[in-house]
Amino acid sequence: MAFCTNCGTQLPDGSRFCSNCGATMGAAPAGGGATMGGAPAPGTQAIPPGMMQKGNILFSKADVIDYEIIGDDMQMVEIVLDPGESVIAEAGAMNYMEAAIKMETVFGDGSGADANKGLGGKLLSAGKRAMIGEGLFMTVFQNIDPANQAKVAFAAPYPGKIIPVDLDTFDQTLICQKSAFLCAAKGVNIDLYLQKKLGAGLFGGEGFIMQRLTGDGVVFLNAGGTIIKKQLAEGEMIKIDTGCLVAMSETVDYDVALQNDIKNGLLGGEGLFLATLRGPGEVWLQSLPFNRMADEIIKATRNKKEETGGIVNNPLNEVTGGLNNALGGLFKF
Predict the structure, then answer these.
(1) Which value, to the nearest 10 degrees, does the dihedral of the CA atoms of residues 192, 198, 203, 207 take?
(2) 297-329, pLDDT tens digit by residue?
(3) Which of 206, 200, 205 is nearest to 255 (CA)?
(4) Residue 160 to residue 158: CA distance in whole angstroms
């Protein structure tokens, strides 16, 4: 993508003139600011005013927010906003807010990345968010009190932990599982991350599509069960059960490995493949992925319905269920 060096308007690649102000592409911005003797450096593109860039992703500088994580196993995060500060959240995540908080639904993620895009570009960005489990619209909560702080709180949709991560300490980028995003300081960009390795996409438990969070602010992720954070050194590798990954640094290599012993893969209950994470970088793991918890609830509900009248156990169900457990879940009765 290209931007006018004079007014910041996004333009098609190869444009010679700005369609907004008429400036010649490559000329010095009005009022100065040119580099290398009055012209932009070769191969560089102007960044719109008030925006920052990481790779090819644009985002605005995030608000600096204070927060407190409340609770133990079913947590919520209470965010303190100074006058004028804002936080963005997925739809339905808000738990409570004070009177000075103004809630507004916006098309986009509030990072400003779509500000200079046309309708097609905005629809494409919205489609990406839909693919990673987020809605087409985000909710912005802003403190409109000109003198006092105000609080707003958010809660995860299922039991687990809320993980705060300062993106500025992770080279402004974090890769996480779909639907992990809960809320963040306004300015954080939420985008799609495609898993390039076929094996990891098919058997890694996270699928081909993950979330990429870019910016310089604090983000809050929700995950199931207990959370453990590991620091991997260069070349250090750990194997994990598929689905237990919550988030990782962009530098971590994510792949899958076939079980060395086929017997363990078939009868051990862990499947034929394990996810592998190789450093350097940091990773967050969860003890109870939501899909695993949902499977157990569905299984228990189905077994209950199959009981005779709900009073007497069905001997056949008990036998087949016991055999299935004995064989590591290999067969589904």
Answers:
(1) 10
(2) 787 777 666 655 555 555 555 555 554 554 444
(3) 200
(4) 6
Q: Given this model, what pLDDT does residue 131 score?
A: 62
Note the pTM of the prediction, 2 decimals: 0.68
Q: Tell the residue number behind the tokens 């001997």, with chain if given.
A: 315
Chain position carrying tokens 């985008």: 191
CA distances, 330 to each of 40, 58, 163, 257, 306 (Å):
63, 47, 34, 19, 21
Sheet containing 101-107: order of strands: 101-107, 137-143, 86-89, 181-185, 218-224, 160-166
**Which tens digit of pLDDT belongs to each residue from 86-122?**
999 987 889 999 999 999 988 766 666 665 666 666 6
Q: What tens digit of pLDDT does each residue of 190-232 get?
A: 888 876 655 444 544 455 588 899 988 999 999 988 899 999 9
Q: What is the pLDDT of residue 4?
A: 61
- Binning pLDDT at 50, 70 and 90, where does residue 138 land? confident
Q: Which residues have C-beta within 8 Å of that of residue 278, sequence separation ≥ 6?
A: 232, 235, 236, 237, 252, 253, 255
Please give the sequence-ordered ranges of beta strands (E in DSSP) within 195-330, or none if there are none: 209-214, 218-224, 227-232, 237-240, 245-249, 253-258, 273-278, 281-286
| DSSP state at residue 24 | B
**Residue whose tokens read 């992770």:** 170
Q: How confident is the model at residue 30 (pLDDT cuts 50, 70, 90)?
A: very low
Q: What is the phi/psi pair of residue 244, to 5°? A: -85, -10
Q: 291: which 2 tokens?
A: 């899909």
- 123: its two tokens: 């629809």
Residue 106 structure tokens: 């916006």
How far apart, in whole angstroms, are the C-alpha atoms of residue 209 and residue 38?
A: 43
Closest among 212, 177, 170 to 286, alpha carbons compared: 177
| Cα gap 265→160, rounded to integer Å | 28
* Alpha carbons 214 and 201: distance in angstroms, whole number: 22
CA 150 to chain centroid, in Å, comes to 26
Taking a C-beta distance cutoff of 8 angstroms, is the pair 292, 244 a contact? no
User: Which amino acid, one-letter code, is at 180?
Assistant: A
